[in-house]
Specification:
Rossmann fold, elongated, single chain, 15 helices, 8-stranded mixed sheet, 2 domains, BirA Bifunctional Protein, domain 2, 5-stranded mixed sheet, 22% strand
Amino acid sequence: MSSLQVTRGTRDIIAPEIYYWQQLEATARQILSQAAYTEIRTPIFESTELFARGIGEATDIVGKEMYTFTDRGDRSLTLRPEGTAGAARSFVENKLFAQGGVQRLWYMGAMFRYERPQAGRQRQFHQLGVEVLGSADPRADAEAIAIASDFLQAVGLKDLVVDLNSVGSAEDRVSYRQALVDYFTPFIAELDTDSRDRLTRNPLRILDSKDKRTQEISQEAPSILDYLSPESQQHFEKVQALLTDLNIAYRINPRLVRGLDYYTRTAFEIQSNLLGAQSAVCGGGRYDRLIAELGGADTPAVGWAIGLERLVILMQQVAIQKRSQVDFYIVSRGEKAEAKSLSIAQIFRKAGFSAELDLSGAKFDKQFKRASNAKAAVVIGDSEIESGQIQIKWLGTGEQEAIAIADLSDSFEALRQKL
């Protein structure tokens, strides 16, 4: 019988990679808690209509990439391809707006898109995202970018670049849309198939094409920055000024439109040159119309999402994280010693130490080899049990000391000082 394998586009996350994930998850909770963001957990699958209305039917995500199925109640459901639509639906359904003020939400979890698997891009992938709902102030945009920058720096990434653009308001894009149609129409035979389809449905998305020839043609396309209203232009300039005040380096990229229809005004990506073609590690922007589109009141909002698979690749490339050391590795040999070893491990754990118990039953020298990741080894043999003592061997210095099992709790403070 052949062995079963993981489904294409999904993968197991195991040691040593899992330690990078644990680090970034802990860092995210710390950074976002300090910035007064509240965690939100939404369902992994939702009504298909939510994503069709929220993301936009003309997008590749809705048109080509969603995992959609009909349940036994003949309802069309979709595994979430991104997190913003679900958070926005929850904001409306749970009347979070009734709490007043600005709602700062964050989420972390699995998303699903039917894409061609490659480094940093899987069909089941994970995102960390934030949503700031209820403020049209440019400071909300700059704060969101600053929080993303803080997080990425906190996990050790450097030399990142913020690509910044404004896609204007819905009204701004009416005239810009026509300018794009006029520009691209003479090149229609040279555009890739998707871009020819987008020409009449959503011409802004042509600027996001990955086709080389279409990218070449797009270089001379009209810029959205020439079609911004005075209000949109003022908003964009304030965001830039705020980023400058925060010493966050950015570059204006008028071709940056993002892949979702709900964006308005500010759009941004944080790039890394370590990821090759898939260089964006964080992307987001303002979406002032989404809440109303989902049945709520007009609510300005801004947010971003970070692809965690790509982030872990970066962390591994710069060798930021190694496996976290445990405090004590407990080795035991002999029937009486092995019987006592678990209770001693539990004593250390309940005192707040991390302790790993060797369960191999191997000889001491083999157990010590597996203790290399610990700060100290707790040695328990039958002779130690008979004398009522354990041996603590400090692996960094080779120093060894005996401690009476009966006095173990009284020794913890001194041990803590040596860790």
